[in-house]
Amino acid sequence: MKMTDIPFIMVDDNPCAVPLYRQIYEAVCRSILSGEFNRGMQLPATRQLAKELGVSRMTVVNAYDQLLAEGYIEGRTGAGTFVASTLPDAMLRVEEVHSSHRQEPDQPRNHTLSRRGKWLASTSVKTLRVQADSDNYAFQNGMPAVDEFPFRVWSQIASRRLRNPPRELLGYGDPAGYLPLRAGLAAHLKSARAVRCDASQVIIVAGSQQALDLTARVLLDPDDVAWVEDPCYPGAHNTLLSAGAQVISVSVDKEGFDLADALKRSRNARLVYVTPSHQFPLGVTMSLSRRLALLEWAKRSGAFVIEDDYNSEYRYAGRPLASLQGLDKDGRVIYVGTFSKTIFPSLRLGCHVVPKDLTDAFIAARALVDRHSPLLDQAILADFINEGHFARHIRRMRSLYAERQQVLVEAAQRDLKGLLEVAPAEAGMHLVGWLPKKTSDKAASEKAARYGVEAAPLSAYSTNPLPRGGLVLGYTAVNAKQIRDGVRRLAQALS
Length: 495
Ligand SMILES: Cc1ncc(COP(=O)(O)O)c(C=O)c1O
Hints:
The protein has helices spanning about 20-35, 45-55, 55-70, 95, 115-120, 150-165, 180-195, 205-220, 235-240, 260-265, 290-300, 325, 360-370, 375-385, 390-415, 440-450, 480-495; strands at about 1-5, 10, 40-45, 75, 80-85, 200-205, 225-230, 245-255, 255, 270-275, 305-310, 335-340, 350-355, 430-435, 455, 470-475. By secondary structure, it is α/β, with parallel strands linked by helices. The strands form four sheets. It has an eight-stranded mixed beta sheet with strand order 6-13-12-11-10-7-8-9, with helices on both faces. Bound molecules: pyridoxal-5'-phosphate.
C-alpha cells in the first residue's frame, strides 16, 4: 500500500486487487462524495500523483479520464484538474459506485439494534413470512380460493374508478379510512355479525396484522400482561411480544379460551387476544357463558379484549353466534376483521371496530404509522361491498368451501385411517388432523413436506406441550382433485 500527500488515496498493487486505475478512480470518488474533497478543489497533476503512488502516469490518466467522463472532475486549460463544481448524476448512485469496496456485515451488529429490533430479527417472527408459493396448495392454511374470485366485476369497478378519479381519491385521505367503505362495513358487520357500531368507530387498516399492532401501541405499556390463547395465531402472539408485553399463554378447551386457567396463571391482564368464532388453530367456538364471563371480567378489571374475527363468514352448519363485540355493553372489545380470507390476502385491507372513546387514539396511531391505506383500493372495495358483490361472493364461497371440506373429510377417512384422524367442522377454512398419541407433529409435517404437502404442525402454534400432535389442513384454496391427491400423498408420507 502506498499513500499520497493528499490523504485518502491509497493503492494496493497486489496483482489480485482491483485494477490500479480503478482504485484511484474510486478513492477520488469516495473523497468527493464524502465531502473530503470540496467542489472546485485542485487535484494533483497526473505526473505528480503517479510519482507519489509509484504507478505509471497512464494509470492516473486513465483514472482521471473516467472521472472526467462521469463529471466528477473538470479540466481547466492551462490551470489543471479540479473537482467539478456541479454534481454529476452518479452522485445519486453512491451505493453502486462503491459496491466493490462495501464490506457491510450480513447480520446486524449487536449494538445496532434496539431491544425490540433484536427481538424482531429473531426467528420467531419469520413464521409470518410466506415461502415462495409452489403450484401445489394442498393444504396451505388460510388461503381463499383466489381463482374463484369475481375479477371481472372487480376490474369493471376498478376501471370505472380509475377512468376519472376525483381529487379526493388522489390526495391524502382520512387515516380512519374512506368514509363510504367505513359506512358500508358498519352496515355489513351489524347485519352479519351483530357488531354494534357506527361508521365513526370503523377504522380501515392494512389487514388484521396492522390492527393488532395498533392495538398494542395504543393500549399496552412494556411489561403489561397480555393473555393469549394456547395454541395461538403467531401474528398476534408475536405482535404482543414485540410490544414488550408479558405474554401469558392460556389453555383453550372445548368451550374456547379458559378464563379460570388465565386467572390461575396471572392475577390480571391489560389485554386479551381471542378468536371466539373459530379458535385459531383448533377451530373451537367460544361458548356463550365463557364470552359473558370474559366480558364481565374485562369490565371489572378495566381490561380490553381483542376479538379476531378472521373467518367468521365461513360457517357451514349450526347457528352463528353473534360477535363478542355485539355482547359488550362496556366498550371493552376491539373487533378486528380482515379481507384476506374473503377477497385475497395481498389486498392488505381489513377493519378495526374500536370503542367510541378510543377512536381518536387509534386514528392518531394509524396516521403516524403509514397515514392510511391506499384510497383507490378502498374505493373499489367500497363499491364491491355496497353494490352487493361481496355478500354474493361470500355466499358462493361458503357453499364451495363446505363441499371442499366434505371432500377432504371423505378422502382422509378413507386413505388416512390409523394415520390421521380428521373430523368435519362446522366452520372455518382448515381442519385439524390428529396424529396417533405420542407422534411428533413436527416430524410428520416435515415428512409431508417431502411429499409436496404443506401441513403445519399444531405444536408450531403452541407454547405449552399439547396432549396430542396434529396437522393443520387448509382446504379452501384447493379443488377436489388436488385435495384427493394431497390426501394420497399425505398417506404415503405418514405410513
Ligand atoms: C387468526 C388469524 N387472524 C388473522 C389472519 C389474517 O391476517 P391479515 O389480515 O393480516 O392477512 C389470519 C391469517 O391466516 C389468521 O389465521
